[in-house]
Amino acid sequence: MRTVAEHQAVVSALFGPPVPVRLSLSEALGRATFDDVDAPLSLPGFDNSAMDGFAVLADDLAGASPDSPVTLPVAADIPAGRTDALALTPGTAHRIMTGAPSPAGADAIVPVELTDAVVGPVAAAETVTFTAPVESGKHLRRAGSDIARGERALPAGTVIGAPQVGLLAALGIAEITVARPLHVVVLSTGSELVEPGKPLRHGQIYESNGAMLTAAAIEAGAIGRHVHFVPDNTGDFLARLDQVAGEADLIITSGGVSAGAFEVVKDALSATGSVEFVKVAMQPGMPQGCGHHTASDRPDGTPGPTVPIITLPGNPVSALVSFEVFIRPALRAAMGLPPQRRRVTARLGADIRSPQGKRQFLRGVLRTDEDGSGVVDPIGPPGSHHLRFLAEADALIDVPTEVDGLAVGSAVDVLVLR
Ligand SMILES: Nc1nc2c(c(=O)[nH]1)N[C@H]1C(S)=C(S)[C@@H](COP(=O)(O)OP(=O)(O)OC[C@H]3O[C@@H](n4cnc5c(N)ncnc54)[C@H](O)[C@@H]3O)O[C@H]1N2
Ligand code: MOO
Predict the structure, then answer these.
(1) Where are the domains of the chain?
(2) 70: how many CB neighbours lie within 10 A of its CB?
(3) 284 CA from centroid of ligand 2 (Å)
(4) CATH fourth-level superfamily of 343-416
């Protein structure tokens, strides 16, 4: 049997390096910058006021006190957005609003509350009186004090979230080169499957892996598309693959890969020779397959596209744990995104058993003990159909291959899912 690490390497090798694409800022959300981004302009772009008040020369207020107030003429009124360049004559003040360009020659701002001026939407008075000195530089936001033109705004590989969108927009950047999101098409197989919302007959189940794996692909940062499941018929299955191959960077299937008499995925793809089916020493997720699918020639004679394909086992828990362990890290790396989930060491909240010779990924819930240390409570039985406990879990307990059981309190390695 192949080890988990060996199969991870095989799956990773299906993907190429990240590819650049230019996207608008809103489209770039959640993507990784492909290149370093340097500031095309300084922020702030000009010296401006941090307060509604008066721009002054600090020296003019040097002797101001309640007993000896200083009164200056108000020579200009500067709202935010005023674009003409003003200069302050010593011995005068300019009324100024937050964000407005500070006049040349002014070196401090006195907030309106510290003057005799009326606070609020009133016309500027002819004079303003100050009763305290002000430090040079006070409440002035200097050009370039946030970031200077040419400085590194975002290094390559930064995942773009709201603050990064804010910085890029402030720098006047409308489009950015990021690692291209990959298109993942998810196909489920199984004659027992019924679309949610339709009536069920005995022996039928609702199809859940397709929706679940598509959601997992989207959560991993890809563009996911769920294609309606196909019947257990190799011809129909291959025709479906041909249909979606042109639009997919990766095809994921679920089901039909174990040892049954009707394993559509395995039967159809084994014949092509470009997908290998293996057993991986893990639980859940033992039967795995991956490789490439080359679609049939197009009607005009051009060769069909070749697409990486990963065939996951049909048991729901096996499918999602396999996605987590094999696909998610490789998919994210190919999109320039940090591939690994956070891992922590926690103490077991209960005894566990584990199949000897298989690396086990048990569902768990993390909590903090009274003494502040991390504890993980294993939940649910190990069976691969227990979706309920998968939905409850916020962690996977990674139990090493050679371990057949661990007692409560043992330290374990935990993959943090949320
Ligand atoms: N004789 C053996 N039997 C099995 C073996 C084995 O080694 N020898 N391996 C077991 C293991 S482990 C797994 S995992 C499963 C994998 O089976 P398949 O990938 O062939 O999947 P199916 O047989 O199609 O389905 C398994 C199970 O999951 C349900 N299922 C399938 N697709 C969906 C879906 N889209 N939505 C919801 N549920 C789905 C299906 O109804 C089955 O109950 O094989 C074991 N057997
Ligand atoms: O190994 Mo299967 O993937 O448990 O249910």
Answers:
(1) 4-17+181-334, 26-43+146-179, 48-141, 343-416
(2) 19
(3) 4
(4) MoeA, C-terminal, domain IV (2.40.340.10)
Distance, CA of 282 to CA of 1 (rounded, Å): 9
Mean pLDDT computed over 353-362: 96
Give me the interface pTM, i.e. the ipTM.
0.97
Structure tokens at 224: 């996911």
* Atom of ligand 1 lying closest to residue 286 CA: 12
CA–CA separation, 293 and 55 (whole Å): 70
In the predicted structure, residue 230 carries a pLDDT above the cut 80 = no
- The 3-class SS string of 283-301 reads ECCCEEEEEEEECCCCCCC
> Residue 32 pLDDT > 90, yes or no?
yes
Judge whether 232 and 255 are in contact, CB under 8 Å. no
| 48-141 and 343-416: identical CATH topology | no
HSE of 94, CA atoms in CB hemisphere, 13 A: 30
Cα(315) to centroid(ligand 1), Å: 5
CA of 242 to the centre of ligand 2 (A): 28
Q: How is residue 204 written in tokens? A: 């039928």
CATH classification of 4-17+181-334 is 3.40.190.10, yes or no? no
- Evaluate: CB of 312 within 6 angstroms of ligand 2: no
- pLDDT value of position 232: 74
DSSP state of 323: I
Query: CB of 313 closer than 6 A to ligand 2?
Result: yes
pTM, entire model: 0.92
| Residue 116 in this model has a pLDDT that exceeds 90 | yes
Verify whether ligand 2 is closer than 6 Å to residue 92 (CB atom): no
**Residue 389, pLDDT score:** 95
Which pLDDT score is estimated for 260? Answer: 79
- Count of beta carbons in the 10 Å neighbourhood of residue 340: 10
- Right CATH for 26-43+146-179 from 1.10.1280.10, 3.40.50.150, 3.90.105.10, 3.30.420.40: 3.90.105.10
What token pair was written down for 180? 């291209």
- State whether the beta carbon of 286 lies less than 6 angstroms from ligand 2: yes
**Strand pairing category for 140-141 and 108-111:** unpaired
- Distance from residue 384's CA to the centre of ligand 2 (Å): 6
Which CATH number is associated with domain 48-141?
2.170.190.11
Which amino acid would we find at residue 348?
A: L
**DSSP 3-state of 279:** strand
